[in-house]
Each structure stands twice: as structure tokens, then as C-alpha cells.
Amino acid sequence: MSQTAGAAAPTAQRQAGLIFQRCRWCGTASFRRLLCPVCASSDLESEESLSEGVVVESTVVHRYTKVARNESLVRFPEGFTFRCRVIGTEPHRVWVGARVRLAAGSNPESGEVLLEVCDTGGRTDWY
Q1: Pairing between strand 114-117 and 81-87?
Q2: DSSP secondary-structure letter at 6?
Q3: Under 8 Å CB-to-CB from 120, ≥6 apart: which residues?
Q4: Strand arrangement of the beta sheet that strand 29-30 belongs to
Q5: What is the DSSP secondary structure assignment for residue 31, as one 8-state letter?
Q6: In the chain, what is the straight-line distance between the N-terminal and C-terminal CA atoms, in Å?
Q7: Largest alpha-carbon pair distance within the chain?
Q8: Which of 2, 14, 106, 111 is deepest in the core (most CB within 10 A)?
């Protein structure tokens, strides 16, 4: 296997976004659902998200680990909200309104979705 093919794989993974479902009946967007949360239709179409969202709720969690981690509820512009983990900063420094994006190397299909803070939003106390 050549080095160019091996180097292209991480780049392609980094550019891939979150895959979510949109109901063909009512147009509601959802993430990792078998049925539409609004009309209970199973006719869902997969779409790719821009993978950038805004934190609407942030919590610091200590359970099952010795190290604290952040769990945030993030709203995406496509219309779905999803609970995920924000990395790249201390857990207590993630604020409501922070813009986040899919973290490089994160693989949403394997389990937990990891996001990172895109900008400081004019805040100087986030680091």
C-alpha cells in the first residue's frame, strides 16, 4: 500500500460529516432513530450534516471515570438536537452558545460523537 493512499484515508474521514435521518412524510430531522419522533413513520432518508452546531446545554459528568468530562446537548442547523461530548477544552469551560464542530478523527458510526469548540465567541476565559 502506498503512503498516498494511507494519507488520504484520514483526510476523507475528517471531511465526512454526521449522517442523520429526515422523515419523508413530515420533514423532521433526527439522529440515530428508527422511527420519526413526530409522526412515527419509518420512512427515513439519510442526509449528511454540516457537522457544526451550537451548545444549548452543558453538564460536567464524573460517573464511571476518575476524570471529569463534558456532556452537552448540541443543536445542529439541519434541525436535530443530539447529546454528545465536547473535547479540546476543560469540561467546565464549555458554555451555552459555543459553536462546536465534529472533532478530527471522530468516528460517529463507532459510538460516541466527539465535538470540539470552533471559536471562543469573544470569550477570553474559555482557555
Answers
A1: parallel
A2: H
A3: 126, 127
A4: 29-30, 19-23, 44-48
A5: S
A6: 41
A7: 49
A8: 106
3-class DSSP state for residue 46?
strand
Q: Which residue has cell 482557555?
A: 127
- Residue ranges of alpha helices (H) inside the chain are 3-15
- Please list the pLDDT of the chain residue by residue as tens digits (127 residues): 444 444 433 333 344 578 899 999 999 999 888 999 999 999 999 999 887 899 999 999 888 878 888 899 999 999 999 888 898 888 889 999 999 998 876 666 666 788 899 875 555 454 3
Q: How many other CB atoms are found less than 10 A from the CB of residue 80?
A: 21
Record the pTM: 0.71
Cell numbers 451550537 correspond to 54
